[in-house]
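Reviewers asked in the last cycle whether our approach scales beyond single polypeptides. To address this, we selected a multi-component target totalling 640 residues and predicted its structure end to end. The input consisted of the following lines:
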Amino acid sequence: MKEAVKLGDMSRPGRTPLAHLENEDLMRLPPPLEDPSKYHNWTALAPHTREKYECGLDDTCALNLPQPQTKEEEAQLVAKFLSGLEKLFTRENNWTFLQPLLLTMEHCAKCQTCSEACHIYEASGRNELYRPTFRSEVLRRLYFQYVKHGGLLSSLQHGAIQLNWPLVARLAELSYRCNLCRRCAQTCPIGADNGLVAHELRKLFSQEMGIAAKELHDTGSMLQLKAGSSTGMNAEVVKDNIRFIDEDTSEKTGIQVETPWDVEGADILLIHNAGEILAWPENPGAFALILNAAGVKWTLSSELAGYDSINYGLWYDDAQFARVALKHAQAARKLGVRKIVLAECGHAHKALSVIADRVLLGDLSIPRESSMTLLRDIVMSGRLGLDPDRNDFPVTLHDPCNLVRLMGVVEPQREILRKICPRFREMEPHGVDNYCCGGGSGFAIMSGNNFPDWRFHVSGRKKLEQILNAFADCLDPSVPKYLCAPCSNCKGQFRDMLAYYNLWEKNRILYGGLVELIVNAMTDVRPGYIEWEWH
Amino acid sequence: MPVFEVHGRTYDVDEDGFLQEPSVWNQDVAADFATSEGVAELTDAHWKVINYLRNYYLQFGIAPMIRKLCKETGFKLNEIYQLFPSGPAKGACKLAGLPKPTGCV
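The resulting structure, written as structure tokens, was:
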């Protein structure tokens, strides 16, 4: 039996990892993955990574945080951390999230109801390091010691922790071992939010210390603000790609598809996650076909960031978040559209529809709608000829956390599936009680070092169990199965995780979006929109 | 910065093993990187993919859509995987000296 990680271990000098997981430690999976001895072995971190970066937390490394070379440098970094910590708890520096953060700091009853709700904690074999309250308890102790300047009595009441560089370095990595799915917050009887704690820590590290995952910052929000998209596509490239998609879709479906660009006064500005355009072109193709067939007056925008709905700042940096949200709203204002519709991207939904609400004021407060409700209205209106028999294969639905638990968009996508997929079956649990795909909060695009191993073994594990259970009666490869995930980030995680466990090759589990299923059922369209062999 | 060493030559690469400076690429570089991606020998088929990626990158500054790559080269996706076992993004792009694709792709 391994010794459990304790809070005080976070300050342990040196860089020996606090936790190590073996395949046998992990939560068991149902068939065909019931034998842990057959799992992939984890790739070990490369020696140069361990020598150069802070890797003292566990088996992986998300941030490539350089090791300070001197004690002075360490002390400076700790001082910066402290200054950021103080800012987190002042209204002028953190007007966005101060209230729920304080509530979480002051009122957690340590009942651990949240731990049982956390997919990462459960999947890890209940490793203490991944308990949702572990990270929060570190922050809580720092808060009482260094923000409220509690004395001995406070230490006795709230516990003490030693603030040093090893703790700060480990805490930075630990803030990237949470998907920010906030299933813990949903179940908390008091309303404490451990997901928010992980978010606030990431924010402190980014805004105060310039520490963030490079996929989210350097090649994420920074690239988006410079080139127009985190994919690096500028306006010329994205138009060229959409032209290709239009041609491809027309050829495949037998229906002429043309995507409108920069139409002033259109009813709807549709914003895709630009990853769809590059990696899953059948999704924007299907959107264009459906909206045209339904007679919707819509447009795409070629403004900077107007064609890429991603807003990675949501996961790590309020300032970057606001910059991108403003770009989205400005693109819509310039065209004078009636509303913005978010295509199939979960975090973009929450970012622009909900969180940006306090940033977009005056004429930037343009109505935002989910594509789920728009598509439901189109499908239910009878404007499209639909033949459910064309979707006569088992389908299950993944609920993207940002869209479903965190926004409450639960039923529209289900109404569509019930109408067009005769063999639709739910995962358990589902709706607002769903589990994260394991790629949430940016993990799906973080593939440095051996981070994907952690993602597929630990953070994606609970979802994997759900998928296998949903298809337990039809795992045989003679039956093709469709995992519907209306979110680019979730799809990226599923693509990689299904391949990792060989579930397409062996069991014919395919993943894809929602609009593809709609077009696949359209009677005017040549049969076979979903390409099972495109893998 | 990590370094990739092969046949007595060294290349600066990023943490994922992608060539740091795309402009130093030439055909010998592709052959050197092939050894790290499980490609035993570069055939005409490999070069067709690599040259398309390279030319597209020089024109547009990013990697092309995978579907476009397939259509333009005439290879199906599974054939690309047969040529480059770690796939079009991680394998073929690396050999062609492109930076690692970014964003939700």
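Chain B is about 45% helix and 10% strand. We regard this as preliminary and will revisit it once experimental data from Aim 1 are available.
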